Amino acid sequence: MRKIIDRTAGMALAVATGALLGWAATGRIMAAFVAGALAAILALLTWRAWLAGPGRRRQLAGQRVQGGRALVAQWARRPDLEDLRQRLDRRYGPGDYALVLRPIHALGPALTASQVLDCWREYRGRDQLLICATGPVSSQARAAARELEQPVTRLLDGAALARIAAWGDMPLPQPPKTRRRLILPLPQRSRAPAILAYGAVMLAMYLVLGWGLYLALGLALMGLGMICLKRPGAPDSLF
Question: pLDDT per residue over 141-157, tens digit each?
Fold first, then answer.
C-alpha cells in the first residue's frame, strides 16, 4: 500500500512539474498538457530503468536478507549445526573453534550470562568458543563472555546470524509470506453502525446546505462503515 502511494505521488509530482514548466515557458494550456505528458513518460522510463538495474539488485539483496532471517527462525525450531558451520566457514574461513548453537525464539527471553557460563564449562580447556543464539543476547551475557578465557568466548545473536546467512550464494529458504497491512488500522466491527450513522448525518447536511464538503465526508464515512461491516467477526469455534 505504501509503495503504491509513493509511486502515485511521484508520478503526480512529475506531471505537475512538467505542466508548470510548459506553462511558464509558453503560457499555453496545450503546451502544459504536452509537457506534463512528456514528464510522465520520462518518469516511467526512469522508473523502469531503475527496476531493471539498481532496483533489481536492491530487491535481490532484500530477498537475501529475508531469507537469512527465515533460516535463523528455522534454526530456532530445528538446529542445524553443520549448516551453520558451513556458512561461517564460507564467510570467515575455516577455524578451529568450538561451536554452540542455542535455539532461542526471536521474541523470547534473551540469552543469559548463566547460559553462557554453562557453555563455557562444557568446552573448558579449548582455545576458542563461539556461541550462536537464534534470538537476542543480553548485555550481561556479552559482558560475561568478554571476561572468559580458555576458551576465549564470543557471541553472535540472531541479527548477526541473519546477516551471515544472507552473505554469499548458499541456498536459503523462502521467507514466509506476510499479508500487507494498512498504514492506519481500520476501526472495530462494532463501530460500523456509528460510522454509518455519522455518514448519513453528513449526507443529510449536504441535502440541506448543499456544501460539497458534507457530501465528500458522508460518502467517505459510508464507505468506511461498509468496509468495517465486511470484517470477519469472532469464529464460532476455535478448532
Answer: 999 999 999 899 999 99
